[in-house]
Amino acid sequence: MTTFPELHLLRERAPLVQCLTNTVVQQITANVLLAVGAAPAMVAHPVEAPEFARVADGVLVNLGTISDATADAMRAAVAAAGETETPWVLDPVAVGGLSVRTRLAHELVEGRPSAIRGNASEILALAGAGSGGRGVDATDAVETVLDSARALAERTGAVVAVSGPSDAIVSLGRVSQVTGGHPVMQQVIGTGCSLGAVTAAALGAVRFGVEVHSDHDAVLAAHALLSAAGTLAAETTVRPGSFSVAWMDALHELTPERVGELVTVEEHA
Amino acid sequence: MTTFPELHLLRERAPLVQCLTNTVVQQITANVLLAVGAAPAMVAHPVEAPEFARVADGVLVNLGTISDATADAMRAAVAAAGETETPWVLDPVAVGGLSVRTRLAHELVEGRPSAIRGNASEILALAGAGSGGRGVDATDAVETVLDSARALAERTGAVVAVSGPSDAIVSLGRVSQVTGGHPVMQQVIGTGCSLGAVTAAALGAVRFGVEVHSDHDAVLAAHALLSAAGTLAAETTVRPGSFSVAWMDALHELTPERVGELVTVEEHA
Amino acid sequence: MTTFPELHLLRERAPLVQCLTNTVVQQITANVLLAVGAAPAMVAHPVEAPEFARVADGVLVNLGTISDATADAMRAAVAAAGETETPWVLDPVAVGGLSVRTRLAHELVEGRPSAIRGNASEILALAGAGSGGRGVDATDAVETVLDSARALAERTGAVVAVSGPSDAIVSLGRVSQVTGGHPVMQQVIGTGCSLGAVTAAALGAVRFGVEVHSDHDAVLAAHALLSAAGTLAAETTVRPGSFSVAWMDALHELTPERVGELVTVEEHA
């Protein structure tokens, strides 16, 4: 059974996470961060975004509902995060099928994100191997995307996380597969986008870690936590309204040990 | 008892609905669409909005929190929807009392929406017969607005839906009245705005229907579904927090047959 | 035991509250206003914002996620509220640490808000005595901020409310301390921001009051109501997901008399 020391660090350090994220999921994202012990802040003005990125422990850049102003804020926040070596996560929502965000994602990825999280079609598109999905739905099987994820990890230096029935966490020389959760999570908006935010929180929590695989393990722990909460909540209800409530409660209650009992992690070289 | 074959189509076809909607209700709107079996996408950048409208099955244009940029996105999406003959729904939130959205609504309605959904005062204002309401509250009785709805349907070709204690669905030569739900729905933000989104989903589901009344029946089915979920949820709780959760669960669980048992539909020529 | 006649007025008059507030908390803010008997409207277009401020009973200006356009809307709404003597509330989220909103807050406060609500670090920053907090978290003890709150109340004429473990309501010659609620409220995003909106609602409800302390008592009643709902909800659950639902139900159910039983109010000269 996997233990997740990163989740202890997450609770202890209460990382401050700046979320440059889409307006659809801001509320649930903030609540998820609070439930897991992190502190959310949504500061997206182009002038203020880099000011905040310099003091944040982690930054999430989610392209779901970009405007010209928020795109500028993202560019500035990514540049600031680079200067302060603050970990940041790119969530390339719906990249591939839409022009503005696709160009923006390719530009931002040059800023060397610590992690990239998306569904299979988004990772394929960002790796240059696919045409993207219809919104936040994955239309490519997770398995077929592993090669693209590896190529993307190699090119960018990021840990690449591919969400699907199982989540694959891919970095140089390592693939971890997390299995857990419940399909009803697909019917609650923001479970995936919140995962990007918790990934940024976990990276912030291990920020000064010295282990070789600190970042990979942090991304893995974030995925395990949200997945385990899904497994646990689904024991009570699989209807989306009440599941959403139970999932938030579970995120708050879960200990790192319990997470290890609720999900399966397989490691591949 | 009315059966709703359109609701079977909605589940089977899982229409992709682009929501150009207000930021207050984006989360609940997305969750409602997922609960009823549709797929939401909020793409509101002026360049991307028409790109997405061309691949969506239905488009919602809700004027609740317009900015200059989202107004441009709406214009572009409506033009694109016209080119691809994608059904789109206009929800003229608070039109009548506020200058920018009132001008915008009058402009957009020339783009021939498949349906227009609003409360009585909004429909009156859009028909040129009233001065609008105070936000999303109706201040005119549904009954007095039927003539205006008929005139608006005639002028625009749209199915016009007037929300109130009973909902009236008005098209050329036909008025259907849906009775159900519970007054607590007025105390949960977004139940009305979500109805606009589900209306777009239902129109997308019957998009290639050949029945004379396909669009009217789709709009009717959407209203019946959300109303039936309200009736069902209110059997458990009428407090707004827990009702909101129960309503989402009900939307997910309801079969088309059960919808017919929970609401009353009256037809008028 | 304190009774809260202002809460009766709130239910009777159903004040219309314009919320120029951050996009993270718009949904919960609207639901909270509906639950306590007020009517929410989020109208933030720079041209429409002052149109609406002239008909609203109260206006909330919350700086959480400002853009250039919403900043213009805030300036215009505040000016309009000044013309019609409509009460308005300033919530200076994260002021102190971020440049654009700090300048904006100092500018807006010249428009003479009826009330200013924030955590200790925000009130310190606005009073010119501190450097601000990291987002919505307070980093200064409520007690140390009372002098700054008094100075701010004197300079602006506003009732100044400082949120913390106990809330302090400060105006010329009067300090009221409200104790109640539960720490889990800190883990539900928007409980504080909603308090700003309910404060605007309560001020709108007593708008034509003739008592010396009408505004102070209205701000106090708003704080007592949300705090009491927290106390009551926490009797059922202290997990953030289910607490959030129970809190909304409690806001809807609480009578003014019951509020007085659930919180403690201490008065100081």
Account of the 3D structure:
3 copies of one chain form a homotrimer. Helices cover 47% and strands 16% of the residues of chain A. Chain A has 269 residues and is an alpha/beta fold. A 9-stranded mixed sheet of chain A has the order 2-1-3-4-5-6-7-8-9, sandwiched between helices. In chain A, strand 3 (58-62), helix 4 (68-84) and strand 4 form a beta-alpha-beta unit. In chain A, helix 1 (5-13) crosses helix 8 (191-205) and helix 8 packs across helix 9 (214-234). The longest helix of chain A has 21 residues, at 214-234. Chain A is globular, with a radius of gyration of 16 Å. At the A-B interface, helix 5 and helix 10 of A face helix 2, strand 2, helix 3 and helix 10 of B. Chains A, B, C: Belongs to the Thz kinase family. Chains A, B, C: Its EC number is 2.7.1.50. Chains A, B, C: It catalyses: 5-(2-hydroxyethyl)-4-methylthiazole + ATP = 4-methyl-5-(2-phosphooxyethyl)-thiazole + ADP + H(+). Chains A, B, C: Substrate binds at residues 42, 190.
Main traits of this protein?
homotrimer, nucleotide-binding (chains A, B, C), globular, 9-stranded mixed β-sheet, kinase (chains A, B, C), 11 helices
Largest interface (CB within 8 Å) is between:
A-B, 33 and 30 residues
User: What proportion strand of chain A?
Assistant: 15-25%
Describe the oligomeric state of these chains in a short phrase.
homotrimer
Report the span from N to C terminus of chain A.
Answer: 18 Å
Which structural class matches the secondary elements of chain A? alpha/beta
Mean pLDDT of chain A: 93
Q: Measured on Cα atoms, how large is the radius of gyration of chain A?
A: 16 Å
Task: Count the beta strands of chain A.
Answer: 9
- In sequence order, what are the helices and strands of chain A, one letter per element? HEHEHEHEHEHHEEEHHHHE
Unreliable stretches of chain A, pLDDT < 50, 5 or more residues? 132-139
Largest sheet of chain A: 9 strands, mixed
Globular, elongated, flat, extended or rod-shaped: what is the shape of chain A? globular
Q: Give the spatial strand order of the biggest sheet of chain A.
A: 2-1-3-4-5-6-7-8-9
Protein name (chains A, B, C): Hydroxyethylthiazole kinase
Binding site for substrate (chains A, B, C): 42, 190
Function (chains A, B, C): Catalyzes the phosphorylation of the hydroxyl group of 4-methyl-5-beta-hydroxyethylthiazole (THZ).
Family (chains A, B, C): Belongs to the Thz kinase family.
